[in-house]
Design goal:
about 450 residues; elongated; 8 helices; seven-stranded antiparallel beta sheet; alpha+beta; Jelly Rolls
């Protein structure tokens, strides 16, 4: 069996070898070119362009990401442009519809509100210009004539009345605009029975918004105008003298040489008194003297002082002090009064017609000495005597004054009584628009008692 298989394998192998030898004879391998490529002598060669096939390297991960981002951005820009075109077309058509609607339905109410607002603004503007001109120019001719006749208060009152009329007119016009708006929109609303908006409301919605916006603008302008008018109403009160006074003492600066001496017709020896005045300080410091009475033994018998924002009242020295805090401010007229009674020893301080401080047991049983000196805006305390090198003394400064205590500002309505005034009397004196200057004291009377200004102090109208 084995020899037979061996013989069969040898036959097969010999057959395969014969077939391979036969196939090798048929194939001819040629290593030479089949085309003519010889360059003869004398010929030049021309450079030939070699074509390099495009290489397509594989894209990296980041290249793919950047390509995706560029594609998404292009799509986004296309969508935005498309949306913008659609919105432009829609807004244009909506604007045309609104213009047609306003032209058809929004004429009467809108024109009425607009014309009323313009007419109202022109009237108020003309009146306001007239009043401002009178306030700025001061109507010098009328003021001079009134000053000669003693009627300076009437001018201030007339200006106040005019400004009050303007303020009332502005408020009335605001009310008229509100009524006009209500009447315009009375037919436009919601069907309260059914609970849904009627087609008329939807139809007139744009007109209501437009007219409402105009009304809000006019109302804001009127409110601003009313605020300006109220400020102007307060300005004449600060510009003119209070309480019907026709003159004031001006202390232009703080100086030991600027003060006013008072020479009363009666002795100031008393056991009870009331002293009052109107003051408008320019600046306020720790201690500023308004009213001071004393003699050589005690220069501080009576003192009415100012602090930073306080008013102070002393009898017989600073040990007996009555203080009212936060009652005075620079640049504003303030009415101050000090009352004292020796029998009860009660000292009280009043500001603006109201009692702000009261202290019992102040100099009880004490009597003011006569023969002292009374000053406004300074105190004769002997603090600053003249130097020995000064051979010529200045009259009125022999006792010496202190610059740190000097008053700067205006003062009017200085009066002194030999009794304690009642609360009602003091409140009447403190009325800024009243006639307190006509109520004069029996010991020191404003406009009657001799008051001599020194240095740069002077009387002004």
């Amino acid at each position: 069996m084995f020899p037979w298989r061996f013989l069969w394998a040898v036959c097969v192998l010999s057959t395969c070898v014969s077939f391979a030898l036969a196939y090798e004879d048929v194939i001819k391998v040629s290593y030479t070119d089949d085309y003519y490529n010889e360059i003869e002598e004398g010929e030049t060669t021309e450079p030939t362009q070699t074509t390099v096939p495009c290489s397509s390297p594989d894209l990296t991960k980041w290249d793919k990401i950047f390509s995706m981002l560029e594609n998404s951005q292009m799509r986004e820009n296309m969508l935005l442009q498309y949306a913008e075109d659609i919105i432009k077309v829609e807004m244009g058509s909506l604007r045309e519809e609104m213009l047609r609607f306003v032209a058809q339905y929004g004429g009467s109410c809108g024109v009425a509100v607009e014309s009323a607002g313009r007419k109202m603004a022109s009237q108020l503007e003309s009146h306001l210009r007239e009043v401002l001109g009178r306030l700025r120019l001061g109507d010098q001719t009328s003021v001079a004539a009134a000053a000669a006749a003693g009627n300076s208060v009437d001018i201030s009152n007339s200006l106040d009345q005019t400004l009050q009329q303007l303020l009332s007119a502005a408020r009335a016009q605001t009310s008229r605009l509100a009524k006009l708006e209500t009447s315009c929109f009375s037919g436009m609303g919601v069907n309260t029975k059914s609970g849904f908006q009627s087609p008329e409301t939807d139809k007139f919605g744009h007109q209501e918004q437009e007219v409402t916006s105009r009304y809000v603008t006019v109302q804001a302008e009127l409110q601003q105008l009313m605020i300006q008018l109220e400020q102007m109403l307060r300005s004449p009160k600060q510009r003119y003298l209070p309480a019907g006074c026709d003159m004031a003492l001006l202390f232009p600066m703080r100086s030991r040489r600027i003060y006013a001496s008072v020479i009363p017709d009666v002795p100031l020896s008393t056991s009870t008194f009331t002293v009052c005045m109107w003051v408008k300080p320019t600046t306020m410091f720790n201690k500023t003297v308004l009213f001071s009475y004393g003699n050589r033994r005690n220069p501080y018998e009576i003192q009415l002082l100012l602090g930073q924002t306080s008013a102070l009242f002393t009898i017989g020295g600073e040990a007996h002090l009555v203080e009212g805090r936060g009652v005075v401010s620079p640049g504003r007229w303030t009415h101050l009064c000090g009352t004292w009674s020796s029998e009860q020893g009660l000292a009280s301080l009043w500001a603006g017609g109201k009692k702000v401080a009261s202290t019992p047991g102040v100099a009880e049983g004490h009597i003011l000495p006569e023969g002292g000196s009374l000053q406004l805006g300074q105190e004769r305390n002997g603090c600053c005597p003249l130097s020995p090198s000064s051979s010529i003394g200045v009259p009125g400064f022999e006792a010496g004054f202190d610059t740190q205590l000097a008053f700067a500002g205006k003062m009017t309505g200085v009066n002194m009584w030999d009794r304690v005034l009642s609360e009602e009397e003091i409140s009447q004196l403190a009325l800024q628009e009243g006639d307190g200057c006509e109520q004069r004291g029996n010991m020191v009377a404003w406009g009657v008692t001799e008051m001599v200004p020194h240095g740069g102090a002077q009387f002004i109208n």
